[in-house]
Write a structure and sequence with these properties.
Layout lengths: L13 H14 L3 H5 L7 E3 L6 E3 L1 H13 L6 E11 L4 E10 L10 E4 L5 H14 L3 H12 L7 H12 L10 E4 L8
Parallel strand pairs: 5-6
Antiparallel strand pairs: 1-2, 3-4
């Protein structure tokens, strides 16, 4: 997301408001309102090929194709939104969930992972080490105990679930959110 003006830190939530407006436009499949949030040199990333979209023409085509792949309205949620803003640059990242029926009859499924041992998590551990003076092992153990699991997830854990969902054995799973969390969310 970008705006054509100098941005200061997002202390008053201005960027989050822009993101909320964008999400409303996505839910409405309003391509013009969605595209109004992007500058011409936007670089966006997706989970389908191509993974990287450069420029508004490429992004507009991707969004047009994506919107038309859903029958009628669909749900769209933004979670784990993190916004970074400086004097001249702002960026965000989040996990987004689309919920709806695709034109080919397939419902969209969602994987909701807990802590996964990635480079991003390693940066968090390093920051916590610097902040607390604790060792890497102590910080990792604190995070593990805090979420109540026996270990952190791995990228293979997530990939294996994706492989199952898209395989013939997962074809009966429709419109589900799967908590992949090693027991963090307690069952009833």
């Amino acid at each position: 997301m970008a705006a054509e003006r100098k941005m200061a830190a997002d202390t008053n939530g201005e960027l989050r408001e822009l993101i909320d407006e964008w999400a409303i436009a996505v839910r409405a499949k309003d391509i013009e309102s969605v595209m109004s949030q992007y500058l011409s040199d936007v670089v966006a990333f997706d989970v389908v090929d191509p993974l990287e979209y450069k420029g508004t023409d490429m992004l507009r085509q991707r969004l047009t194709d994506w919107f038309s792949s859903f029958e009628g309205p669909f749900g769209f949620e933004i979670t784990n939104l993190e916004v970074e803003a400086g004097d001249y640059l702002a960026f965000c990242h989040s996990l987004n969930r689309a919920i709806g029926i695709k034109t080919d009859g397939v419902q969209v499924n969602c994987i909701h992972p807990s802590y996964v041992d990635t480079e991003r998590f390693a940066r968090r551990v390093k920051a916590d080490m610097e902040r607390t003076g604790k060792s890497e092992a102590e910080v990792r153990e604190w995070h593990r105990a805090d979420i109540g699991t026996i270990r952190l997830g791995t990228t293979d854990d997530v990939a294996n679930l994706v492989a199952f969902i898209v395989s013939p054995r997962g074809r009966w799973l429709h419109g589900a959110t799967v908590d992949l969390d090693g027991g963090e969310v307690k069952a009833f």
